[in-house]
Amino acid sequence: MASPGSGFWSFGSEDGSGDPENHGTARAWCQVAQKFTGGIGNKLCGECPRPREGGGHGPPLASCGRPFTSACPPVSRPRVERNYPEYFHSKIKMWHFNSIPLDLLPACDGERPTLAFLQDVMDILLQYVVKSFDRSTKVIDFHYPNELLQEYNWELADQPQNLEEILMHCQTTLKYAIKTGHPRYFNQLSTGLDMVGLAADWLTSTANTNMFTYEIAPVFVLLEYVTLKKMREIIGWPGGSGDGIFSPGGAISNMYAMMIARFKMFPEVKEKGMAAVPRLIAFTSEHSHFSLKKGAAALGIGTDSVILIKCDERGKMMPSDLERRILEVKQKGFVPFLVSATAGTTVYGAFDPLLAVADICKKYKIWMHVDAAWGGGLLMSRKHKWKLSGVERANSVTWNPHKMMGVPLQCSALLVREEGLMQNCNQMHASYLFQQDKHYDLSYDTGDKALQCGRHVDVFKLWLMWRAKGTTGFEVHVDKCLELAEYLYNIIKNREGYEMVFDGKPQHTNVCFWYVPPSLRTLEDNEERMSRLSKVAPVIKARMMEYGTTMVSYQPLGDKVNFFRMVISNPAATHQDIDFLIEEIERLGQDL
Predict the structure, then answer these.
(1) How many domains would you assign to the chain?
(2) Residue 257 and residue 363: Cα distance in Å, rounded?
(3) Is residue 183 within 8 Å of residue 577, measured between CB atoms?
(4) Above pLDDT 90, what percent of the chain?
């Protein structure tokens, strides 16, 4: 094992004379090392492979006799042929072969093993990032749960493992991870891997702070304030007025909306509970997200108090049925308190008629919420934002930038039109966090308006990507994904072996279709055919995963048997990837 002396960072000849192997790489390494703070940069740079007059170890010297810097000209010395990265990493691995995590910072003299360990972790991550965009690599290396459990020992132990084993766990975890940034991964609404967003996520984890007060997250709190205001402006609320918060996903954002709507109508529920209020009824479409019922269950409202409104053939809520059901509820003496319209349903990608819904909510004095978790990104596009016309009339909006805008998971915002309502609904005045005699503006202590105490920093990814791309960059992203969806639709709508689930081009990037194998194409449209057709998509999906070539989701809906639901949110996808998907479905399903 290499000693922790200067020889560890020496990349000279085997006898330790310090001959340079690659002056350009070494000089670049020193420039990187100098960026480290707290003196570690000078220590590391002093250990870098610089030629020293007379040979030997120690801080390198230029011909002037002073310490070598990046400004000094390279010294001509005999080159030792060696693969620099390979040799470099072998030195690092020698360093921490028997090291354990307790050797890392904050351990005394932990700087070098820490830097070496993190460098190796970074190498593993960067290799994974590059492979994620390589179409020749698999989207997934699928193994069944029992296979993975038997192949590796995942159990937790009493004694620490060394850093080599820790690195192996990192590699193993990524080996079997789904490459959600792969251009041929179409399985979920959240796909892609943005490099600026990734960098922001790394920074957020490095900062490792909480979002409840300004005093421990000053920049992040300010960025949340700025970003939420900008999102409210885009929704159409004058001057970006209102309130909001980043929450752990759209389901929680929707539950926040339900909770605030209830408090707005019956503020006494906060202290006295549901026993103090009449039976409350919420309304949402039959194609809406399941989180509305989950929220009702969690808040004590009950799933039976969520009325599902009929949809038309394209999956849009029918305003006439909404008004009919509201009148029915009122006649029974119950209280309608929330209508949740959907802008971009999960399966069809449908947009409810928000203007008509807003008129009904205004007429009956009901809180209007818009679940735009999936469709909110279209507000960034001048070409497509008309699909959310009327969203500006909502009382609250859920918007998930981690979906259509490609921000790394998780990043979900709840926007509320009335300022102060969220604070009044949720605050508990914990004096050990929210002291009223602090020396700064207490309005930036946002934690008391959240359900959580500990709250992750989710805003920085979105803010940094917005700075890097601009609103116009997000617009290009959205427009490209919708164009790809239309490209797929135009190819398969009249192609042999394909049947569309509904007529007309998609409003979002959701393209829903059946693949009909040759053996079923001549059968009559009866129960037997539907039964056999329902088994096609699951088998093709299983084969996709076993081959690892691509992934696309399927599901039944209502009286419709299993069909493929294609969604596109990854800007890395191209026409060629869409062509590949079609050919792969046909290859994997032709014998069924």
Answers:
(1) 2
(2) 20
(3) yes
(4) 80
